[in-house]
Amino acid sequence: MTEQSRPDVLVIGAGIVGLSTAWFLRQRGCAVRVIDRGPIEGTASTGNAGMIAAGHPPMPQPKLLGRTLRLLLDPLGPLYVRPRIDPALIRWFWGFRRACGPRPFARSMHALADFGRMSRDSFSQIVRDGAIDCGYSDRGWLEVYRTPAGRDRVREACEPERAEGFRIAFLEDGALQAQFPVFRSEVLGAAHHLDSAFAHPDAFMSGLAARLRERGVEIRTDAEAAALEIEQGRCAGVRLAGGGVVRAQATVLAAGVWSTAIARTAGVRIPMEAGKGYHLSVPDPGLPIASVMSETYVACTPMAGRLRLAGTVELSGINLTIRRRRLEMLPRGAALYLRGLDASDRLDAWCGLRPCTADGLPAIGATRRVRSLFIGTGHAMMGFALGPGTGRVLAGMICGDTPSAALAPFDPDRWS
Ligand SMILES: Cc1cc2nc3c(=O)[nH]c(=O)nc-3n(C[C@H](O)[C@H](O)[C@H](O)COP(=O)(O)OP(=O)(O)OC[C@H]3O[C@@H](n4cnc5c(N)ncnc54)[C@H](O)[C@@H]3O)c2cc1C
Question: Is the CB of 144 inside a 6 Å radius of any atom of ligand 1?
């Protein structure tokens, strides 16, 4: 295709999926417009823990159901489900339960492994080609444990990742503290996931938006999509909430958890639940690598001189209400592992919504229900890591590449 014959493309949503898609579309010579209802600072794509964890398993996992029940009964646990009778939530849990079986898990793990490698490479390529200053580090990440039960659980959970060819080193018997003295002496050890990376999400996202604008991509942050514009079985663009239609030859729906409602206007079903997570930041006590404290489920990532503490999954619908008690669990859960954590100097109390499908897999690709409509959403806890890869494959599909068979598990029509 010549540059003249490339489609002009509208992207709905300026999160990591939308902006990464815009990046690869622009690289391939497409004219691209991105619309967002804004502000784009403060969405899941900027407020996440910054881990680019290639090989990370999906949310539904074997043995998770028993553990989930225990976590739900613990008022200070990392999981909270607001009690309510909601048929969509019940269906979602049913699908989640099915996806926890060993066979669906193995299939999902395999699909995510290759995709995760490709996405990590796409991430570093954007950082390099765009010269984006976002603290990108390919040091990997640590999964830290302080109890024998935690050690056994982490070791077992690492097996599927190892089977997919990812390198993991176990730092035990003082090896963790020798390399990273910030860990308390009673911490037993850590699994070091060597094939992963981490970065500062706010800096990455603002750098990416700036590069896109320099390359001629229009990013509007005052435009809320109300409905997809369907004409004779083809998506012709989007109708805005404030009135008017933005037209394009191809439309990408990448509006995070809000994609469900927008897709419905074209008769496309993408059932998702919002998985609310929180972060706050404290002065960095000297942790040079992204780490997840495995017994308390708190992610700690060094970012611009501070340490971002992130975590918890709250299924309470689409809302941005901050429950203080859940926020408090973050410094408490991190201090059990780290020396010198000053929880009194905290900033940035924040929450954001992960777009979670029940089967733990994203929805990526063209829908067969409407022509010229492409979907990229549902990345749950892995969207920062998988956003760039999603952008790369969506740009390829829009430009006419034959989609790889390995993408079949991510079919956006699998609920129709
Ligand atoms: C606490 C926390 C920690 C996390 N940590 C990690 C991590 O370490 N690693 C990782 O890989 N992932 C992590 N994630 C998950 C990751 O952040 C998400 O999966 C990812 O950001 C989703 O990106 P997105 O582009 O799909 O959606 P979003 O970031 O939600 O972006 C969607 C955009 O669409 C816009 N929009 C919505 N509705 C409309 C509309 N009607 N019209 C126009 N625009 C609209 C929104 O304003 C928003 O800008 C974490 C998430 C949380 C909450």
Answer: no
